[in-house]
Specification:
It is a single chain. The protein is mainly α. The chain has one domain (about 10-210, about 220-410): MFS general substrate transporter like domains (Growth Hormone, Chain: A, Up-down Bundle). It has 15 helices and two strands. The protein has helices at about 10-40, 55-80, 80-105, 110-135, 140-175, 185-205, 220-235, 240-260, 260-265, 270-295, 300-320, 325-355, 360-385, 395-410, 420-425; strands at about 175, 180. The protein has a two-stranded antiparallel ribbon with strand order 1-2. The chain is globular. Residues about 1-5 and about 415-425 have low confidence and may be disordered.
């Protein structure tokens, strides 16, 4: 850890990271959200990728994370994380320009390629940002720092999805003879370029951080890094913690693919559907902050179990609820609130348990595994939709998965003290 790095919570480095992460998450959700609305039921590109095209979008988004996160973690350990961030944000500027062109010319496959390019940059940024938190704040502030970062990320998701809903609505409304026309054709690109440019500016204010493991050999084979890191993690509680953490991303990926279809299910416009995503995101962020401030090592296992059980109940209600905007928004908000109690204890434990000189690889590997789970969620959505299951009923499948996780993570019952053990105490 760099000796020059500030140690308090609200220092310049942490605020810079917070802002950079905000615009990164916002830009990801603008492009992914706009493309999801473009291929949803009844949209102009509904048949571009076949039935359940949102599943294809989800798989393309997660594939770079699966392939590159471990390699990104190795780079994060070997080089200064602040310098790597500046390089990544510079590349993002070029990708944003490519995105603008592909949406403007009405190419579904070009827009999908732009999404893949953005997720490639984000795959490298993931282990950098999570590893940087532990270099910018003290260990006893990790839970709060994670809660604040998650809250900021979810606010960014709200902004990104709201912008995506508005942009997609106007962009689709401007189609003439099967292609976008007029000024609205450039709206997705304008939104992307604005978010990326702001993220580039904020990353320039990050403090200079020293490399944690500059002698780490370069290994271009990401799978070798995954295997070696997973073996190291399996020697203690790190692997089990990481696997429980990744389950959240399986759930989140599936939910974000379900919700664009609620435009047709509820009979509402895309921008109104984005309000549902906003309700979910703000409640997750709120739950993350509350969980962070209540976090303590002895509570973490109970928090995780309670969060999984709460998600199971919320999703079961979603799968059975009538097509009502108000009921849907309320159930999503309630589900998001308990989700924070699931994710924050696991994320904080993951960062605290990871060794300093291997934190990038550990978090990169965990990040890659989380997107493997996101890919599983996308594949599940695609398979269930092609099997004819309505999108809203997929919530019932998620409810069963969350109930199983609540059982797996439940705290072991405390054993009553015996006279012998009491004597030793």
């Amino acid at each position: 850890m760099s000796a020059a790095a500030p140690r308090g919570l609200w220092n310049r480095g942490f605020v810079s990271l917070l802002a950079t992460q905000f615009f990164e998450a916002a830009s990801d959700n603008v492009i992914k959200g706009t493309l999801s609305f473009a291929v949803a039921f009844g949209a102009p590109w509904e048949h571009a990728f076949g039935t359940g095209g949102n599943g294809i979008v989800g798989l393309v988004f997660v594939l770079p994370f699966i392939l590159l996160s471990a390699f990104g973690g190795r780079i994060a350990d070997r080089h200064s994380k602040s310098r790597v961030t500046v390089v990544l944000k510079t590349v993002s500027l070029a990708v944003a320009a490519f995105t603008a062109f592909e949406f403007a010319r009405g190419s579904a496959w070009g827009a999908l390629a732009a999404l893949a390019a953005f997720s490639t940059v984000s795959a490298f940024f993931g282990p950098v940002k999570y590893g940087m938190i532990a270099e910018l704040v003290d260990e006893d502030q990790l839970a709060r720092a994670n809660g604040i970062v998650n809250m900021s990320t979810n606010v960014a998701v709200i902004v990104g999805m709201l912008v995506a809903g508005i942009v997609a609505h106007r962009w689709k409304g401007g189609f003439v003879d099967g292609a976008p026309a007029g000024d609205s054709a450039w709206l997705p690109g304008i939104a992307m370029c604005a978010a990326v440019a702001l993220g580039f500016v904020t990353c320039l204010t990050l403090p200079r951080l020293a490399p944690q493991n500059p002698g780490l050999p370069v290994d271009l084979n990401p799978f070798r890094t995954y295997v070696a890191t997973i073996r190291e993690m399996a020697r203690g509680p790190l692997l089990a913690t990481a696997l429980a953490w990744t389950f959240f991303y399986f759930v989140a990926a599936t939910v974000l693919l379900i919700l664009p279809d609620y435009s047709a299910f509820l009979g509402i416009a895309d921008d109104e559907t984005s309000y549902l995503m906003a309700a979910l995101a703000v409640s997750i962020g709120t739950g993350c902050v509350v969980a962070a401030y209540l976090d303590a090592p002895h509570r973490r296992r109970a928090f995780v179990t309670a969060g999984a059980a709460g998600l199971a109940l919320g999703f079961a209600a979603m799968g059975l609820a009538p097509p009502s905007f108000g009921i849907t928004a309320a159930l999503l908000a309630a589900s998001g609130l308990v989700a924070g109690f699931y994710i924050i204890p696991l994320q904080s434990a993951l960062q605290a348990l990871a060794p300093d000189d291997a934190r990038g690889r550990v978090l990169g590997t965990a990040n890659g595994l989380s997107f493997v789970m996101g890919g599983v969620g996308s594949a599940l959505f695609l398979a269930l939709r092609q099997a004819g299951l309505p999108s809203n009923r997929i919530f019932l499948v998620l409810a069963g998965c969350c109930a199983a996780m609540a059982i797996i993570t439940r705290p072991a019952p405390s054993r009553p003290s015996t006279p012998a053990s009491g004597a030793r105490g």
